[in-house]
# Entry
Amino acid sequence: MSEADMAIIKPEMMMKSYIWLETTDGSIQQVEQEIAMYCPMICHEVLQKGLGAGSSKNCAISLPQRVNPAMLSLILDYCRFHQVPGRSNKERKVHDEKFIRMDTKRLCELASAADSLQLKPLVDLSSRALARIIEGKTPEEIREIFHLPDDLTEEEKLEPLKNLMDDPRIRLLNRLYAKKRKELKEREKLKGKEVEERVDERSVDDLLSFINGKDHKVVKTSKSKKKNKKRKEHKNKVSHNLHSKQQGVQIVDETAASLGGVSNLPSMEEDIFSLKTDSEDGYVDDGMDPVLKEMLDREVEDFARRLNSSWVLSSGQERQPVHFSINGNGATRRLTAFQVMLGSLILLMVFGWQVPEFCGVTVKGNSRVRISGLTGTEGGDEWFDLSYIILDEASDPPKYDNVPADREDLVRDVLSSTLLFPFELQLCISELELL
Amino acid sequence: ISISCHCFVRNFKTRSHIVSYKMDLISKLPEALLLSILSLLPAQDVASTMLLSKRWRFLWTSVPRLEYDDSYQSIEYGRFSRFVDRFLFLHEAPVIETLHFKLGKTCGGEDIRVWIRAADKFCVRELIFEIDSSSNDSPPILLPSSLYTGCRMLVTLKLNKVILEDTSSSIAFPSLKTLSLVSVEYPGDEFVSSLLSSCPVLEDLHVEQRPYDNVTIFTVRVPSLKSLVLSIIMGKGFSVIDGFVIDTPSLEWLDIVDYRNAFCIIENDMPKIMTARFDVNYKHPGEILRYITSVKRLYLCLLLTSENVYPSGSIFYCLVHLKICTCMTKWLNLLMCMLRDSPKLKSLKLEQCHILQAWRPCWKEPNSVPECLLSSLEALEWVGYEGTEEEKEVVAFILRSANCLEKVSICSNSTDPCKKLELVKELLFLSRCSSTCNFIFD
# Structure
């Protein structure tokens, strides 16, 4: 606004010129012109509408909805102080610090009102104050302070990713896990009757009781999920089970934790074997029931997603193990298929190795890992297969051999990187073989 | 802060949450405003807002300015690096404006490589790497060369206490406008030259050199540069052959603080210079003053070893504000020379910025009154006035010679009110040439 404009608007009658402002509740007040013009929005209105705007009660300038009378008076106080040109920076800062001390409710209203009036310095001031309030607090504290509704379901709280179901990588993972299951099954046949003896009856019952579907069964600290009926059938009792067995060992994401959890797992494997031997008929085959397949796929998806996605939610807290509830209403057929599922997935974790970190687990030891993946290049997606053996996982970078020469860089990248980017390297585990 | 429990409104949704009557105001703020509030928070707090409520669940993925601090809430490094990786992976905004990394713990070079790649993907405009080397066990952090070739959209780059890696491939920062290199270790002199010459639109350069950074002569040859701030963090490890070479014809702001026994060569005239500040120990300060004769505001604290500050003939025709530090022994010489050579000077400020050197100068009445005193000087300000002989003489001289003087402001260091009164009395009794002079004493 220029001095000339202000001079034109000034009514001749008064020494001081006033502008009339109307808030949405209908109340009209008179404000000194210089002070009101400090707000860009008011200034803009006055200039745009020409002479006479705001100069009397009848044609008062109507303020945006977010400015209520209380906030208006606060804002005008702020403007009254700052529009005086002679103040030093230090004075302004001291004033601002005192000015901004108010309860959070008023602070939010002030930020909103200042934003609608486009008074940037005040918006910045109140934003900084709000940020200071939020900083360093836990979500519960923040919800208390700002009266936020605690309307996230448990499931939502634990699933920071959205739409990952649609992600092509997850579908890929599904297919790969299916192949994997098949192969593991074959190996199990060869493996061992001897393992059968170590059946732990009690834990089988435990598993069965989950499987038989006590609705909303709560295990330790997990809570039931209510949403997302699509995935209702068998939520990963895998992880659920693991959780119950492992007493909060974090199977996902934390290498160290996984290592620690390994020692518990052999007991699991016994259970699995016992389950598996029961589950001949429900075995997942290529020609299996599509419904079943879909359910299994979903489970795998879920599992993979949880592996991939559960990460630091808050740095200060212990990471909560992933919780699932069971809305089980599994038929027997599903039961057995599920058991296979359970078994095969558990086997991923078991035997002292895990899968590379980018999928949530790491490979260690003398294991051969076959990785097939999808890589996006400018031209389109390209499949490739890598096969290599990790000889010494402790060395950095890890040693591996049997990698086709042109893929070596990729493998090295994968092993050293814990990050997946779209259109770079997207790998999933296809098969794991034991030596 | 306590939840107000004495009034409930039953929420008639199926979930039957009980909601306090107090409204959730903050979630009703416009999204842009919420994002700018979240931009002020460290990244760990930003991520934890996803748990607050439905409104906030995905808000965090659009925050445009992110600050990752690995010392915040003492998070262990492995978790921190995974957190950063996944945060960047899940981020949904097409462009992140600012990525600010504050690293202090053991930082893997691989991590930084990945993060720089992420910065490139998100077209980050401002990238800041700040290393906290206060703890002894943190190894120096080497920035990979992908930084030079990868980030084409960078507008601002700030590096603090990092080590730059040499690269044979060409460096390119086509959009870089602001570059800040503080306490950085370079591969060598040529690297600095090639780095700076690969920034075609660079406008702002801030360099703080530290000892043992592998650079002897820091060459700044940037035609587009508008603002240059050079300073040296003192310490052992500098030699007499260290120095600066400056070739910046578009420069408007120059600020050099250099207490080494070094040199500074300016290779080109700087016709656009507006403000210059020299707080230096160079042997031939006149050599640099010669190139900034168009300057409007000047601050000098020069170590003088001879009478002539600069080859006479350098007249500062545009100089309006002059500030001289009174710590040096020969500051009086400098003052008189500058007054003589600044015909349009309007404001003179004398300030005691550093500890006074032991030897104080003696006042010598000049042969002729400088022109600026007669016709243009309007304000005199003295901060750190002590009332010594030569200081009194200076004030007396100016007061009796300056015709146009309007405002004199003297601030004393002493806290003793008697002493202050003395000083005031002395000053007030000085004869004043100008009749409209306002005297302010603090």
Summary: Chain B touches chain A through 55 residues (CB under 8 Å).
